[in-house]
Design goal:
Radius of gyration of chain A: 17 Å
Order of helices and strands of chain A: HEHEHEHEHEHHEEEHHHHE
Number of helices of chain A: 11
CATH class of chain A: Alpha Beta
CATH architecture of chain A: 3-Layer(aba) Sandwich
Number of domains of chain A: 1
Strand order of the largest sheet of chain A: 2-1-3-4-5-6-7-8-9
Largest interface: A-B, 35 and 34 residues
CATH superfamily of chain A: Ribokinase
Strand content of chain A: 5-15%
Oligomer: homotrimer
Helix content of chain A: 40-55%
Structural class of chain A: alpha/beta
Number of strands of chain A: 9
CATH topology of chain A: UDP-N-acetylmuramoyl-L-alanine:D-glutamate ligase
């Protein structure tokens, strides 16, 4: 699988997909930099007057609900509907799902447009699957990834999405009944804001140009996880880590990738 | 006092308070990273449809007026009212007070909800106390901290807040008639955008879990100031400084803190 | 010309102009840091209730359309009109021009207020001049700078602006019929999000205090380009580059500037 995943990384670098991001204010800069670092081309646009046009131009859509409000949620719905009608891949990052009734309500509306891929932490996946989720603590997960696997399978069945539960071990489930486990990354990554959001954006870039959306998800998550663990060795804390991850996304070699990759089937 | 302040820093690291931030676009990323670095858990949310719920879930509220507009100011008022009604601590950062009549008007409305702590530079504190303030120059202070002490005392009397005037010397005044002087920090910190905003956010995290709000304020301001002066030694300019401060907030030791702390009573 | 340009850099450091930015969410932090690094004083404000007041206080206005929407475009128009009526210099960065009809429509309205300086990539300059532009790919340019020179000359004639087409070679054209070529910078700068936006903001700072707006533009573009090429030598990728550029903007010496400057007349 290493060779296939690395080929996908090269494909993104070569084809430079245009990723339309409707994402939160906290991570716009770091998301754009991460997308540029892997060779993709980011655009951020949310105006109701142009969001349909932008999704149409782009190769893929990312919707991240982090700092949503009434205006932005309308834009998200227009964009998701556009992607759905055009059969264009789109990725949903349900940030903070379960935290407030409003957030849950918008997520349910977005799900109707059948996201190609859903990436969230365990609490979020549990919350959107309406399972018996422990209450979310803000935007950080308090549930473990394993708790959320059944919830993820329900989402796969209901919406046809590939679902990625990110955490210490990332778990990817899909319609072909595969369950992939990815054990890359480093705990200090949870101290850098928005690396989950970055993961979703990178996943979108891969989904734009890789036919197999499960492989696209694994490739993106592996690339970021490996960038994180390699960067941590050269970092003195989360400040240097945030910056070094961008460098490593840009400069990672096939040898580094192959040496670090830790993926398996459940 | 060193030991008490260090204990407070450890308390934040252990209890990881959930900080609800309604803050400006410029600093959302750096604020979230600073909060994560000290062990707190940040959430940014401003939708009128969920802001009351989010303040209710959180342990503390931070309101920073930097890039306010009509929608955001309504959200700020809902959140401040919620915190006030729930007796939940909340911190006001009156960014750019005095710059425009609109900004002043919103600040006066927010003050009615009696912020637990107000942190601003001298120009801002003078402006919100309606003293004879020199005109603000954008968001940077042109008044000295000492000029603003009487204005701060007026605010303490009127709203019961702890007031922190940040500057070369930070001055903290409170209802117990204490005046604390903190001489940590480094001039290069004024060349990094939003470190004042970071100071307010860290103060909120401390106020969430420390009973004595004056000590909470001093601990937060001292932690950031010391992180700044230690980081500056390893930095080549404000770019590296911004990143190194995050690392130092994350990794500061009790020895470093005790060696650098420069607090006194006036 | 080296000595004149360096004198302009010193003038910005000494006079610290207040730059009113209405810019996009992606770059607010990096723009503010770049402005602080060169000695300017940034303020970000967009509320319709205060935007006129803020433009009036400021020494210069920057309008960057990156993440515009209906509200923000109204604010931009109010601010541009205010600057125009007050004969205050203002800079337009037409991010993503040509990408959507909505974006093009707002740009045409803004142009009526005769921007002092327009800075964009070749695709954007072609798009706003309504030339036969190749379709924009999101916010990145796919046209070369040379293609856009006639379009730039048309804009100069129509609106009286200095026009800067940024790219591998930056081309600056003006009403005095000068065409200046600037060959500073490094290709890795295109992998850092928003350095074009930074270029426009720095140009605004120079335009605030330098009478000759062509020289102001060249000085700003040269400063950033040289900071980029010097920083790249110490960077391992776009993450460290973003940070090192801020350091270099802050600490650049006259010797470094003179050694690297590569400006000529066409």
């Amino acid at each position: 699988m290493e060779k296939t995943l690395w080929k996908h990384i090269q494909t993104v670098r070569e084809l430079s997909p245009l990723v339309h991001n409707i994402t939160n204010y906290v991570v716009m800069n770091s998301t754009a930099n991460a997308l540029l670092a892997i060779g993709a081309s980011p655009v951020m646009a949310h105006a109701k007057a142009e969001v349909k046009d932008m999704t149409t131009i782009a190769n893929v859509l990312l919707i991240n609900m982090g700092t949503l409000d009434e205006y932005w949620s309308e834009s998200m719905l227009i964009a998701a509907e556009t992607a759905h009608l055009l059969n264009k891949p789109w990725v949903l990052d349900p940030v903070g799902a379960g935290a407030t009734p409003y957030r849950n309500q918008i997520i349910q509306k977005l799900l109707q447009y059948r996201p190609t891929i859903i990436r969230g932490n365990a609490s979020e996946i549990l919350a959107i699957a309406k399972s018996n989720a422990p209450a979310t603590k803000g935007v950080d997960s308090i549930a473990s990834s394993m708790d959320a696997v059944q919830a993820a399978r329900n989402l796969v069945g209901q919406y046809g999405s590939v679902v990625c539960i990110s955490g210490e071990t990332d778990i990817i489930v899909d319609q072909k009944n595969q369950t992939l486990l990815l054990k890359n990354g480093h705990p200090m990554m949870t101290k850098v804001t928005g690396l989950g959001c970055t993961a979703s954006a990178l996943t979108a870039a891969f989904a734009a140009v890789i036919e197999d959306k499960t492989e696209a998800t694994v490739a993106a998550m592996a690339l970021l996880g490996i960038a994180g663990e390699l960067s941590e060795k050269q970092s003195h804390g989360p400040g240097t880590l945030q910056m070094n991850i961008i460098d490593k996304l840009y400069a990672m070699t096939d040898v580094e990738f192959a040496e670090q990759l830790n993926v398996s089937r459940a």
